[in-house]
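Late entry, evening session. Most of the bench is empty. Finally got around to the prediction I had been postponing all week. Sequence below, unchanged from the version circulated by S.P.
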Amino acid sequence: MHHKKSSKKVKNIKPFLFKKCGRGEVWCGDSLQRMKTMHAETIDLCFTSPPFPLHRKKSYGNEVSMGYEEWLFQFIKQIKRLLKPTGSLVIDLGCCWEKGRAVRSLYDMRLALKISEELEMPMAQEFYWWNPSRLPTPAQWVTIEKIRLKDSVNKLMWFGKTDKPYANNQSVLIPYSENMEKLLDSRRYSRHMRPSGHKPSKAFKTRNAGAIAGNLMTLSNTNSADPYLKYCRENNLKPHPARCPYELPEFFIRFLTEENGKVLDPFAGSCATGFAAHKNKRRWICIDKEEEFLNTFEGHFGLRSVKKTPQKIKRYSVGTYAE
């Protein structure tokens, strides 16, 4: 479907860039404006890692901490409109510290309350991504004054449009631990009361396809042999400096969508979310305003490098968005 161009000139909005890739679409431009043109209730999952509220600008276009919640909230309102009634929103948020103070910002808590109360989107669960290879930051408090410990965990918040958005924990089962394997193989097992007051049922010793995953994920992000990095080097392209590991969006895509579901990332960066969706046979839309990094997205898909600069994604004028 094509929307007719308005007779009025739209100011301060750059033309979008567009490219089709398998089941997905890559859009470069203002994701807030792009989302306003999309049909309501068409998205199964929005997984995104918005630019964190830092105190100085980065090359990937982060917002400064002042007024961050209001800035991000306008995007989340559009995301809610786009989600199906069974859809989910998962936001990856990093730690932020008050400027010049050894005090943790509470922006993530304020944002969670704002989403829950003003948009009436209940928080289904919190998740934590532990990156053991992260550098010791904030440096002033950790390595210089030595009065804080390094930030090594990102918080991910999962919201639904209802109390029970679509989810299936059987699609993200993990291998049993070594101790659990021994327990399953043993002939004797005492179902005594645990210190927590819980008593395991008889079904606890049943061997299933795997163990239920927890809400703490351990993922490093230091793979120098990543095909994406190789692609960028061979094509003289600058890689995105704040990519998340593929396993992070992939976990939620498998957990919160079914095959052929539709995934949206309005702060896509280099399109790691799109690649994770592609791998798992989902449809996807990736949007970002930084053309420099979006033009590296093909590196995720294992496309062969070329000697010349890859062909850039096609340019479309505002108002010619393709559904």
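Two things to note before I forget:
Residues 68-82 form the longest helix (15 residues).
The beta strands are 16-21, 24-28, 43-48, 83-93, 123-130, 153-160, 216-218, 262-265, 283-288, 314-316.
Will write this up properly tomorrow.
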